[in-house]
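Per your request, structure below.
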């Protein structure tokens, strides 16, 4: 996959980044979301120091990522448990069918 240079606006500045061409739209969307979150955080907190605002936004994003990973793990655990239940049920059904076939 070849990388192409893309320019995305963040904090009123254009950032030039190398990115696979098929991911340009997602990167633009990510930059737009980041810009919006920074703006909202500045408005909500009244903090003017951009480094502090960026730190808070980064911390919030990290927290949300951890929550999403935990939720994903919980869902994977539930699905795995259900698959094991189904597998056990199928084993029981197959065993009953086999016992039934042997009787005849």
């Amino acid at each position: 996959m070849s990388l192409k240079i893309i320019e995305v606006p963040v904090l009123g500045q254009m950032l030039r980044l190398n990115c696979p061409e098929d991911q340009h739209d997602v990167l633009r969307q990510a930059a737009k979301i980041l810009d919006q979150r920074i703006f909202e955080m500045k408005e909500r907190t009244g903090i003017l120091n951009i480094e502090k605002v960026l730190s808070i936004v980064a911390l919030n994003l990290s927290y949300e990522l951890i929550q999403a990973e935990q939720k994903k793990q919980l869902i994977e655990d539930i699905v795995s448990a259900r698959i094991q239940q189904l597998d056990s049920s199928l084993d029981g059904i197959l065993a009953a069918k086999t016992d039934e076939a042997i009787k005849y």
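The domain at 1-46 is CATH 3.30.160.880 (Double Stranded RNA Binding Domain).

Regards,
D.
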